[in-house]
Each structure stands twice: as structure tokens, then as C-alpha cells.
Amino acid sequence: MTNKILVVEDEVSIATLLQYNLKQAGYDVIIANDGLDGLHKAIEEKPDLILLDLMLPKLDGMEVCKELRMKKLDIPIIMLTAKDDEFDKVLGLELGADDYMTKPFSPREVMARVKAVLRRSKVINNSQEAEQSSGEKSYHIGLLNVYPDRFEAFLDDKLLEFTPKEFELLLYLLENKNRVLTRDQLLSAVWHYDFAGDTRIVDVHISHLRDQIEENSRKPKFIKTIRGLGYKFEEPKV
Ligand code: CA
């Protein structure tokens, strides 16, 4: 099946260049020239990926991101930013952008990122679809119950709400229970490349996980901070 990509970009030369390269690579391409148009096309066309410029007329990239997440549209997003944009990448990732790129970028670089993000989102979708397969994998630690195939986690009976990245991070911690994981390790395992060493994104996500799974996130029983090293997922002592 051909992947459909929505490009939301007001600079015609960049939009045209991206369109050309994406078509060459075999993708279907939809173009929107402002944020509002981009939002509408995202909702109507349900693309597999959005390349979203940050500075846009009518609705900026962050707003578009926010609206899409509020509508529960989990379309992967790569944010396009200019060097001088005051862009808080942690906030962007928090709002649900999967990746970001700084202009000027080479078409080759864009294609590589597009491919990587699509591959990652497919891995998640496939595991969601695989739920019927027998022998469903699950984790039960204390009151925490996690079902990777269903993309669901419960604390006692309460369904927890995670973003895809938070869930991926939780799974990685569970798979490596009782092991100390450095922030860099987590960055490369969960985000698949390093954000120029910006490990704040790990801390932000850990704190969100704690808000959901810990009784008292100031005194975490599951996710321990290992000072000077990183984090460790532990089985709470009874
Ligand atoms: Ca722009």
C-alpha cells in the first residue's frame, strides 16, 4: 500500500521540493499551504505521516499538533523548523511531534527521516493488530498490569493513559527490569537516535510515567532514579 504524506508548508519552493522528492520515492503527496488547511486535510485524508512546518499562516505548527492530538489522531509528525525559530523541541515532542528537522535540509535527509518514522509507526500499529494471536505477552508487577500487544496498561483496574512514546519507554524499562539504564541508553533505545544529547526529553517522559503508575511520584516505587547514572525499573518491595 502506498503511504500518503501530507506536507504543510507555506514556502512554495520548499513544498514543491518536498513534493517532488516524496513522489520520486513512491509516496502519495498532499500539500497544504497554511496551518488551518493542513489541519483540515489531516482530518479528511488521514495521511500516514505529516511534514509540518512550524511557522505557518493561520495556525502554527504547534497548534496544528495540539489540535490533532486533541482529536486523538495519532498521525506521526515531523516538524520542520528554521534555525532562528524559537522552537522548544522538548515541548514539540511533548505535543506529539515524533521528530523534527531544521532547515535547510537535504532531500536525502528528509527521505531518511520519513522512512524511519513510518517504520516506527508501523511497528506500533502491527503490535496493536496482533492482539488476537495466542499467548498474549503481558507484565504483572505489583498492581501494574501491562499488555504490550493491546497497547494498554492498568494500575489495579484503572486504565492508564500514555502517549505512544511513553508506552514504548515503559515497555523498554519493563524489558530491562532491575537494570540501570542511562539516559543516553534510553534515548537511543526509545527515540532511536540522539537528540543532540538532549536527555531532558527522557526526564520529562519518566516524570509522566511516574504520574501514572506511582502512588506518590515523589517517592517512586517502580521507577527509581539512580543518581548520576539514570533510571531503573524495580519490582516494589511488599
Ligand atoms: Ca513557514
Strand order, biggest sheet? 2-1-3-4-5
What is the CATH architecture annotation of the largest domain?
3-Layer(aba) Sandwich
Kindly report the CATH topology of the largest domain: Rossmann fold
Mean pLDDT: 85
Euclidean distance between termini CA atoms: 50 Å
Strand content: 15-25%
Reading the helices and strands in chain order gives: EHEHEHEHEHEEEEHEHHEE
- Which structural class do the helices and strands define? alpha/beta
Explain what you see.
The protein has 238 residues and is α/β, with parallel strands linked by helices. It folds into two domains: 126 residues, Response regulator (Rossmann fold, 3-Layer(aba) Sandwich), CATH 3.40.50; 95 residues, Winged helix-like DNA-binding domain superfamily/Winged helix DNA-binding domain (Arc Repressor Mutant, subunit A). The protein has eight helices and twelve strands. The chain has a five-stranded parallel β-sheet with strand order 2-1-3-4-5, sandwiched between helices. Strand 11 and strand 12 form a beta hairpin. Helix 6 crosses helix 8. It starts with a strand and ends in a 5-residue tail after the last strand. The model has no long low-confidence stretch (mean pLDDT 85). The chain binds calcium ion. The site of calcium ion has 5 residues, from loops.
